[in-house]
Predict the structure.
Amino acid sequence: MTVDMLPANDTDPFGPDVLENPDAFHAALRAAGPVVYLTRHDVYALARYAEVRAALVNWQDYQSGAGVGLSDFRREPPWRPPSLLLEADPPHHDAPRRVLAEVLSPRALRDLRQRWFDAAERLVDEVVARDELDAVPELAEAFPLSVFPDAVGIGREGRENLLPYGNFAFNAFGPRNDLVTSSAPDMPGWSAWVNDQCGREALSGNGFGAAIWAAADRGELTEQQAPLVVRSLLTAGVDTTVHGIAAVLYAFATNPDQWARLRAEPSLARIAFDEAVRWQSPVQTFFRTTTRETRIADTVVPEGRKILMFLGAANRDPRRWTDPDRFDLARDPSGQVGFGMGIHQCVGQHVARLEAEAVVTALAARVRTIELAGPAVRQHNNTLRAWRSLPLRFT
Amino acid sequence: MTSSAAGVVTAKDVLSDGVVAVTLAHPDGDRLPDWTPGAHVDVVLPNGLARQFSLCGDRWDAHTYRIGVLREPHGRGGSAYVHDTLRVGDRVGLGGPRNNFPLVPSSRYLFVAGGIGITPLLPMIEQADTLGADWRLLYGGRRRSSMAFLPELARYGDRVVVRPEDEYGLLDLPGWLGEPRPGTRVYCCGPAPLLAAAERLCQAWPPYSLHVERFTPKEFGAPVRPGPFDVELRRSGRTVTVPDGSSVLAAVRLAGVSVLSSCQQGVCGTCETTVLAGRPDHRDSILADHERDAGDRMFICVSRSRTDRIVLDL
């Protein structure tokens, strides 16, 4: 099938309407076919679960090294030195991935568990004392910011740069629209601060950052690679968990029966988080680039073309999920692609799960009902499905 | 043991006297799990024997694995089965892949292979070459006719030094390794005496220069702590006693808790278990020194306890 015969869609997937609510657009893409040509950006889109999953795991045919955003690094210089994890392929990807997977393994997180659960209880004690709160700054942002930078081992100065830097990095995967250009003047400052946190001397002795440098001392990474691996933690480790936690809070606020169920069975906290990640897909999209002429269903995609994978659409594909628009703790969310799949699957997923489990568990022990206290307001980002404001009332 | 996936034999080729290459694919033609150079898989043969083999194929081909199998006349029967009985079309179980021998990034590598120890090094060499690293391989074997993969190594020209023992005598490892060079990574795989020689010579090198892969277990002295010790299985809420002469794995299984294991020699890594409290007496051939010191995991087929009680996440 050539481009002329492919189903085409003229909508801008990074336009404000889609970013506000992508559901109808996703449904149209899934209905149009396994591969859809997006005229606005001259890219091939995958929105069905089977095709998205197949592309995610197939690093041989779909490379990340040309960038996982719209920009093709083979033709345009990236806005910063590429990530050694997200924007790299084997063999270069092997050592950074191996080291970071070990640093963030469930085993390595074991010692943090009690500390993070205690921190979540203290924070939740504070916020439930109030009649109403905006759960984005006061819980979803406050909790990761209270535990993650300390776990990495960075200093206390300048942590306010973390969220805007991450937000910019995820916007930068999209086209150069207003979301990118409006914050571009501030980007060099955020970027310089983040880079300053990645050196050996900036990191305290027992954090993830120091563990990355210890791996470099053992020769498992080069001295040049180590700061960039630390940078990956700081780029991808904050905004994503913030929006993941916001997603699970929004899910419970709008599904009181599911909150009742969680309270009756608090051990469902981890399932609840993965189900919320499936349902909201905080990371909505990533691109790949074909390394050779590749067949997807009946479509032959030429070499060197950008493929846009709609993780959020795949996570609600009725071909894969029963009643996909429903947030349901009875569901087994295993296989959801909100963390990706394959060699690039989110290396920090255990960190995200532990943070969310700590918050949800602390709430379950203290809060009978969660409800929206006002309109929830989206924050638009070219990659992230995010909330700017989530007014909640706890009883 | 149980295996995580199935494979089907799609080719079996004689490579040299005593070595066959077996090509495996997913029975439905699906992708096989990803791997990196230095990785091995558990192959569960149709007769029930499970053996570990290094992957020596092309990872850019997601649909097949290739392993090289030496006939070991004094082995436990796995290699003889592969040579004499295994046929194209046969099904095997596959476990892993796992990598206890990863290639670390460097601009200079020295590879040393003894006999069938060439297998994990083949994909490393290909990778080092692709990345433009400065590398050389010293490859020893009994006779030229017994040494596998020589035709595919020929394309690397004089980076590869082939030294059959019947033509050249024992490998001149000191002469070939030369003076310690900081930043050079030495990768060695082969029989135990070769690994011991490499370890001895590399003591003069900066730490972490040498990486070895064992196909046979290391030699260990008596356990650090003689006598029985208790093992608490935290998740199961059980405590078992491990007497002298029995393994933690055996005691755990006796208590009715199932753990996946494979080589039962501390070589393959299948039975890795998280340690929650107590200090392990590591007797495996896998962990690096810093991993031993961390004491947060152990291979319960061989490793024991330094403390009266050890708590496992089982």
Summary: The longest strand of chain B covers residues 5-16.
